[in-house]
Each structure stands twice: as C-alpha cells, then as structure tokens.
Amino acid sequence: MKAYINKKAYDFEEGESILTVARRNGIFIPSLCHFQPLHHRPATCRVCLVQVTDSQGTRMTTACDTPLRDGLIVDTFSKKVRDMQRMQVEMILADHHQDCAACARHGDCELQDLAEAVGLSRNRFADLLQKPAASRTVDQSARAMLRDMTKCIRCLRCVTVCRSIQGVAALTVDGKGLGTAIGVGMAPDHHSSACIQCGQCTLVCPTGALAERDENDTVLDYLTNPDVTTVFSFAPSVRVLMGDEFGFPAGSNVEGKIVAALRAIGADVIIDTDFAADVVIMEEGTELLGRVSNGGTLPMFTSCCPGWINFAEKHLPEILPHISTTRSPQAVLGALAKTYLPKQMQMDPARIKTISIMPCIAKKDEAARAQLARDGVPDVDVVISVREFARLLRRLGVDLLNIPPEPFDNPFMSASTGAAVIFGTTGGVMEAAVRTVYAVLNGKELQGIATAPLRGLDGVRTAELDLGPKVGKVKLAICHGLRNARILAEEVLSGKSPYTFIEVMACPGGCIDGGGSSRVKGQYHPGRVRRQQSLYEMDSNMVYRQSHNNPQIKALYDNYLEKPNSELAHHLLHTHYTNRYEQSCAGIEENMKKITLAE
To answer: pTM for the full model?
Structure first.
C-alpha cells in the first residue's frame, strides 16, 4: 500500500499510524505524549496535528492514532497545520505554571523544546489559564520525590510507566477540567500512597511535574563546614552513567574522573560503594547457605534494591520473610563509614557526614529508614542522584569531560572486585553471589566465571547451576521491573516456586536504568545495552573478580567483623522490614487491580 506525505509516496503496512511512517522516513511531526515504548494513550497532547485528504474530504487529525490508508494524502507542514500545532502548544504551555528558572528540568524541558519546534513566539492564552494551573497540588510529603502538579501537562507518560512497566499503579488521573492532574489514588498524600519511589516516572516526565528531591544545598553546607568530615561514595553503575551528563559516549567508564571531581569540590574522604557490594555478597551469600543448610525460609530474595523493598512492604508484605536481611551496599557502607572507617583513620565519627551518589531515587527514601539509623542518627546522611551530582558539578564549575582522572586511594574501603562492579546491572548480584557461594562450598573457584545464563536483558531469566556435591543443582531466577517481580513473588506465595535464590531489581535493566539516572528527551533507557556491556568489560579486566578475594574485605573481617554473619556483622550490616500494606495500600489495592485489568 502507498500513501502520500507532503506530496511524496511512501510504502506502509496495514495498521501503521501516520506518525510511525513519518518518523521512519525522517519526516518531523512535533509530539509530546508519543513516547516509545510507552505510547499506550495516544493523542493526549494533540500536538501531532496533520491535514489529511481522502474521498471524504479534507480534515485535521492527530498523526499518532490515525492509521494510514491506501491513497491517503497527508500534509504535515502547511500554514494551517503549523497554526493549529502552534495553538495547541500555546494552550498546553499556558495550562502550566511557568516558573522555569526554579524548575527541576530547567534547560532540559521537552515542553520548551516543543514550543521552539512549532515556532511559538508569544502565548495568547497565558493570562486565561495560568491561575488555575498555579492552584494545583504541590506535594512534598515523600522523602525522595516532589510532585508539582502546577507543572503537569497531562501527557500521561508517568501513569503509563507506573502501570504498564512497573505494575504498581500508584498514579491516577484525578480531577476534571482545568483542575485535572496526576494524583496518588485514594491516598491523602504522596508519602502515604502506593508509590514505591522508584523514580521511573521522573525519567519520562517531560516537564518538572515529577522530580527527585534536590539535596545539593545540604551537600554544599557540609562541604563548607569546617566541623564536618565529608565521606563521599558512589554506586557501581554511576561510573557508566555520569558520562552521559557531560557528553561522553553511552556507557563510558568515568570512575577516575568522578574521583577527581570529588576531590576538586573538597571531599575529605572518597570511598567506593563497590567495596560495600563485596561485603553484601559475603553477608548475603552466608545467609543463603545458612537457610539452605538449616531449613530456613526459601527461596531467598535479594535485598539491595530499595524500590523492591518498598514494593514488598507496601504491596506484598507476605513475601518479607523470604527477603535477605542483609542491608543494601549503600546502607552497609554508611554503617562501616561511621564505625570501622573512623577507627582505621583515627577520625571522630560524630563529625562524619556520609554522602552517597546513586542512580536511584528510592535510595533517598532508604537512607531515611529508622532501622538504618543508630540512636536516631542515620548511617547515610544525604543521597544525591546522578542528575543532582551533575548539577552540583556544574554549579561549582567542574567539567567532567576535561578533568584528568585520579584513582581511589583510601587503603581501607576503596578496593573492589569485578563481582561488585556488575551489581550495577540486572543479574549482577546473582552472578556475584554464585561466584562466592560456589567457592565457599567447594574450596575452589568457579570455572568459567562469567555465568552466561544469568546475563541478558529479558525481564525474567532462570538458570540451573550445579553448586557442587554439598548442595547439588539449584534453580535461580532473576527479574527486573516490578511487574515481573510480582509474578515471581506470587508464585512463591502460592507454594509453586522451584527456585532457591531470586534477584529482583525494581528498575528495568537494574541500576544502569535507575530512576535517578540521566534523562534523554523522547527516549526511555536508550543507553541500556552499552552500559551493561561496559560493566561486564570492567569485570573481565579486574584483578579480583570474586568478593571473597578482595584484600580489603579480608582485612575488614580479620580486624573488625571476625566473620560473615557474626554478632557484630549482624548488628551493623543487617536489617528488618515492616508491613506497610495497611497504611499505604489497604483499600487501594483492589481498585488498582481493577484499573490495570481494565486496561
């Protein structure tokens, strides 16, 4: 079949939309709500207007939800089309509180880009609509995120990613008319809602309606306070994410440049969260072996992802006994940075402030958990996302692109292994655990250390591995994205799960696609494959590739913790979980399921 777009013939398949065929052939049609792979609610923004002509006459229509038909004539750039597109953008922009200078997406706003694309030079409707927009909800109750509905333009991307990708369904379309905006179901506020603060909605929001809670000023207060000793650390995936913010090719390893940048802004101590990831493997692996040997609760789920922990506590609290009690790497590092590190470096622990740089927004919420504090003092004082850290460096005039790289030099908590590096991708925690568990059981290293069945980007992956004569073959499962996690968890609760160990990452792709990572306009996780490859390349080039072989880990246990799961290790490095279903999801869950099923 053939149709004509701007007087030129194009082939197409039945059912393809005008917008799909136009984009495939390099024809620009402005749009906002059309956002692959999330385009399940077409024509909500109505910016992709085009003029079509057929036997029934000439009319205006939206390109994203209008299928091409044989012989259809499409005009995407006539004066009438341009005027209609411009007027639609005027109305969207007017129905939006235009406090751009203070917006989380200042300089990175898709709505501003759209206004430029349609040639908007003035807004005739600003005075008419600004007041209703400014009266919408601004919700600051959540510990990790801000929900500013004065900036919401109702594109529904966030609703789609929350329901269709994550299966959480915490976001709803509330209100009517000019008061319509994205709400949090029947909850009184964001903090009390079913939201697990994974931050995936912040990646797709084209404006600043949904954003991370910016804590850079707190970091600057610490850096400029002579009575504070700042201890900075950054997660495994951050080294392949930060480059995106400064023009590096996707997946570039900028570890040394991050270290140099932290020194340039005045960090007192720089340690590697990878070190803590190795500690997690020692603790979690020992816990798994204990459960297998002593008839403990199986299968055991990993515990390093705070989005997954929030999901379990709020949506599936029955699964909590199956989750490892080992803290996440961030929480492990915070505990050791305020106990072990000051002993080794003769520092006053009361002066220490720990700052984590994370790919994850839910890590902010994790740091505020009461069970991860001692005597009311949090082990992790501040968490900033990759996006926040990039803004901080720009504020201080540090250009990551041109700063010479520097190595870690802390002799107590900066050495790491390949096993820790791959924590940054889906499957990495499982593979790291298998390497150490096998060695502990058999007294020798696992041959063919790169475990192919555990790698990839399929939403759910399974493998059967022989761990030697003491345990035999075990079945393992890996999933990323909470819709997939729910499937595996419900299988466990039904008593039908064949697995011994299950890894869960809330964000699709794992930490390489965390809710606090870099945003690319109009795209969802575009650098995923290259980021994952980069982490595996780093792993293959490491001197040590198993957590138990890290010399600083050996020193930690020899000089301080004694052994994995010792009394001191359990006190510092393990935690407990809380059933939050009643306060967050009771009465809402059934409604959410109905909404999801209806879609």
So the answer is: 0.92
